[in-house]
Structures are given as C-alpha cells and as structure tokens.
Design the sequence.
C-alpha cells in the first residue's frame, strides 16, 4: 500500500526545502563576497604598485640615489616633502627618464625608524594638499618598521598623463654612504 502524505510529512518536506534553499543561498553569498574581494584586490594592484610600475620606480630610485646631492637629502632630513617635476635639476638624464617612464609627478619623503603613524599621516596629508590625486593611493600606505637607525627615504610616483588612467607606485631607499 502506498502511504498518503500526512501533515507531518508535509512539514518535513517544507523544512527540508527551506534548509536546502538557505544553504545554497549562503554558499552563493559567500562565493560573491570572495569573488568581489578578489576583484577589488586586482583593481587596487593594477592601479597601485603594479609590477611594471615597481620596476619603473626602481629605476627612479637608483637614479635619485646616484645623482642627488647633499642639498636634496638635507631638505628631506628637515622633514620637507620634496616634489620633483620634469624640470627639476636632478641630473642630466632626468628629462629623458621622465619622458621614457611616463612620469607625471614624484614626491620624496623621509621615513625614519621612530616615525609614528601620526607623523606619517602628516606627511601623506602634505602630499595630498599638494596634489589631491595622490589621496586614494596614500590611504593604502602604512609606515614600515625600519630595522636600523639610518634615515630611510620613500619615493612616491604617479605615472600617466590622463587623470582617469593614473597609476602609482612607491619604494623605500637609503642615502648612499660616502665612498661606497
């Protein structure tokens, strides 16, 4: 004999349907959150510190290390934000480097071992006041813990000429030792 569905069985089927539906909905929400997180990370990576820009900044950093004089470092050591433009007198090849790497703005700051989050934020605020397009990128930066007492400098670069296509990158460097 075939059993007819009683009220108890109908309640069980309804509960089972709800549980399966909620489980599937939960899995879909979890997958969406994970996927959007990956998408946001990719967008941030593409715009900030992409591999190509990291190599570009490495070139700029090496150029600044070997061509900058004591007046450049003394400005940084006094807590100033140094803004470099295409016309800055940083050496003979600066204009060529500027054009070849498609640089649109360069800032250099000093970050030392004891820099606090507030001091670092003040430096970032100075840069944002000079050029507001750096604001979103600077929000992603945090002070690094520098392990030795020597001054460390940070070069922050904006690439591109179209405001909708700007990309950014940054690196730290140390002042070269005399005779090194």
Sequence:
């Amino acid at each position: 004999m075939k059993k007819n569905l009683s009220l108890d069985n109908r309640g069980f089927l309804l509960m089972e349907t709800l549980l399966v539906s909620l489980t599937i909905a939960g899995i879909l929400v979890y997958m969406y959150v994970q996927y959007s997180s990956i998408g946001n990370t990719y967008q941030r990576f593409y715009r900030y510190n992409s591999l190509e820009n990291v190599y570009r900044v490495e070139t700029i950093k090496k150029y600044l290390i070997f061509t900058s004089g004591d007046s450049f470092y003394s400005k940084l050591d006094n807590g100033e934000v140094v803004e470099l433009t295409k016309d800055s007198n940083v050496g003979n090849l600066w204009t060529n480097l500027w054009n070849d790497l498609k640089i649109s703005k360069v800032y250099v700051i000093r970050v030392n071992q004891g820099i606090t989050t507030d001091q670092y934020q003040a430096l970032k605020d100075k840069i944002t006041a000079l050029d507001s397009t750096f604001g979103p990128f600077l929000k992603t930066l945090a002070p690094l813990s520098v392990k030795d007492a020597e001054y460390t400098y940070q070069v922050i670069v904006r690439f591109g000429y179209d405001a909708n296509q700007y990309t950014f990158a940054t690196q730290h460097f140390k002042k070269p030792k005399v005779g090194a």
Q: What stands out?
A: The radius of gyration is 27 Å. Residues 40 and 46 are 10 Å apart (CA to CA).
